[in-house]
Write a structure and sequence with these properties.
This protein is of the alpha/beta class and 554 residues long. The protein has helices at 12-22, 37-44, 57-71, 83-98, 124-128, 144-156, 192-204, 214-218, 222-232, 318-331, 342-363, 371-381, 423-433, 445-448, 455-460, 477-484, 491-494, 501-507, 521-530, and strands at 9-11, 27-30, 50-53, 75-78, 102-108, 134-136, 162-168, 175-177, 208-212, 236-238, 253-255, 271-275, 295-299, 312-315, 387-391, 411-413, 438-444, 466-472, 511-515, 535-540. The longest helix has 22 residues, at 342-363. The protein is globular and about 70 Å long.
């Protein structure tokens, strides 16, 4: 007699794979180890989940992050215990501070066995506790499905983030009952009293500013935020994580100005409406953005006591808050839609002057191929093309030179934690999620070298939509220039001999283009964009010595 699927008894590896599949996981990113081998036999005999092999655990974790960022779903990575865990800790930390929904799975000895110095033994629980939302370690085979479901739920609800699931190796040979599972999404809703208090503060303000972050994207509130800006007439500033929540270039959208841009005019604001972003130093432009005295803050997370306290803090899903707020505004016939504020008009003029001056400086050296000149040309090239862009944060000082972001979930950079090596594997994860859309990884050569081996992954999985751009200045040149602004030249500590990234890429099965003059930029981008990739563009820049001072202390 056939047993119904919901009541099948399966060994632990099958339980795990079936449960992940039932929860909508379509692919996960992994690096094998002896404790993980039983999973691969199960994966070989099914077609719902596609495992993607990486060459380093950090890269696998960042690929899961890239997948999560473009899909707004939980990314999954599976690595071996011990060194597999220690290799991905920096990537998990980046995901934690970026609030990226992530599930990390390992198979290890039961925790009570720690201390016997077994092969690959390390206390991963203690190491990962500060940078994960939750750690799950089921002790019985009957608890495995519940643990997986809870892991996916926790990673994706509230403030999203990484969850660590370890399956004790002693359970791998055991059999459990397969049950139907589903994740019950929990959404924190505002009260009508909170919304009315927020609206009262907004109506009383003369020069309010909206400050939006990645929480708007995570909650899927782009449409509601656009409506709020339209009906209220309040200008919008975004954190790096919030770039593109409303297309940059639309009226009232100030976007994410460069870190080198003087934002002192924002002192005139008498109310910040902070939506889905934390008020940490990176989001506040390394402390240069001074917050006004009054503030309304909406976030799915609890308030951080170390950040400035808001006059009204609403712990709520951003979309749910904006839905009610917009409804209240429309109900009030007395609501006064604002004309463009002094803050916005000041911003438009000063930012236009700022960028024009920078463009003149770049144009003054027509034969020099600087990173700034390449970024400006890339922006012009992408003005009428669609692509997702992943960047390593060394280029944050040049935000104004990066392409305008016209759609949500199409610009991503490492941020608060600042782990180099994010862009390449995260872009690969995005490529696997969106094969019809061009995905660009933009890195300095220092960041590129962190996970460069996984260029081969782009070739292996025929990611024809992947383009890797390496701004090549033979070292950590920007860090070198920042140091030299305070000390004597220290090249031997920051710079290295030239590396042939062109031949390296081709040896891994990736097509390569090298450019060393400005006149070659458009031709190279056109070839990579229209060709059947993956491609690497090696940009041999003349960057050393360009920065005059540290952008966070000027």
């Amino acid at each position: 007699m056939n047993v119904p699927c919901a009541e099948k008894k399966l060994k632990t590896p099958s339980l795990v794979i079936h449960t992940l599949s039932d929860l909508g996981v379509e692919q996960f990113f992994h690096l094998p180890g002896n404790t993980l081998a039983p999973f691969y036999d199960i994966l070989r005999r099914q077609k719902k989940i596609k495992p993607v092999l990486f060459k380093h655990e950090q890269a696998a974790c960042f690929a899961a992050a890239g997948y999560a960022l473009v899909t707004n779903r939980t990314g999954v990575c599976m690595v071996m215990n011990g060194p597999g865990v220690t290799n991905l800790i920096s990537a998990v930390a980046e995901c934690y501070y970026q609030s990226i929904p992530l599930l990390v799975i390992t198979v290890d000895n039961p925790r009570q066995n720690f201390g016997i110095e077994d092969f690959h033994e390390v206390d991963s629980f203690t190491m990962l506790r500060p940078i994960t939302k939750k750690i799950l370690n089921p002790e019985k085979v009957e608890d495995i499905q519940k643990a997986i479901t809870e892991a996916v739920r926790s990673a994706s609800t509230g403030r999203p983030g990484p969850v660590y699931l370890n399956i004790p190796v002693t359970l791998m040979g055991q059999t459990g009952l397969l049950r139907k599972v589903q994740v019950k999404q929990e959404t924190a809703n505002p009260t009508i009293v909170q919304v009315k208090r927020a609206l009262k503060l907004i109506e009383a303000a003369q020069d309010p500013v909206i400050f939006a972050g990645s929480g708007v994207v995570r909650s899927g509130a782009e449409k509601e935020l656009d409506e709020f800006v339209t009906v209220s007439g309040i200008p919008l500033l975004t954190s790096l994580g919030g770039r593109g929540v409303i297309p940059e270039g639309k009226p009232l959208i100030m976007g994410t100005p460069s870190y080198t841009f003087d934002v002192s005019f924002l002192k005139a604001s008498d109310l910040f409406i902070v939506l889905g972003t934390r008020l940490n130093p990176v989001n506040l432009r390394m402390g240069r953005l001074e917050l006004p005295k009054k503030m309304v803050q909406v976030d799915s997370d609890r308030p951080n006591p170390k950040f400035k306290k808001a006059d009204l803090y609403v712990q709520s899903d951003v979309r749910e808050f904006l839905l009610v707020l917009n409804k209240e505004i429309k109900k009030r016939r007395t609501y006064r839609k604002r004309t463009p504020s002094r803050i916005y008009t000041t911003y438009k003029q000063s930012y236009r002057d700022f960028t024009a001056a920078d463009y003149r400086t770049i144009a003054a050296h027509p034969s020099k191929l600087s990173s700034q000149k390449f970024l400006l040309a890339l922006s012009q090239f992408l003005a009428k093309r669609t692509a997702a862009l992943f960047v390593d944060s060394i280029w944050i000082p040049y935000t104004h030179l990066l392409p305008r972001v016209r759609t949500a979930r199409s610009f991503f950079s490492m941020r608060s934690y600042g782990c180099l090596g994010f862009a390449l594997p995260a872009a690969l994860g995005a490529c696997l999620a969106e094969r019809r859309k061009k995905v660009i990884s933009l890195s300095g050569d220092g960041a590129f070298l962190f996970n460069c081996q996984d260029l081969s992954t782009a070739a292996t999985y025929r990611l024809n939509n992947f383009i890797q751009i390496v701004l090549n200045n033979s070292g950590y040149s920007s860090l070198h220039d920042l140091a030299c602004a305070q000390f004597d030249r220290q090249g031997e500590y920051y710079l290295w001999n030239t590396i042939d990234y062109h031949r390296f890429a081709e040896s891994l099965g990736v097509k390569a283009i090298t450019i060393d003059s400005p006149g070659q930029i458009t031709t190279a981008l056109t070839k990579a964009f229209s060709g059947n990739g993956p491609y690497l563009i090696n940009v041999a820049t003349t960057d050393q010595g360009n920065l005059k001072g540290a952008f966070w202390t000027e």
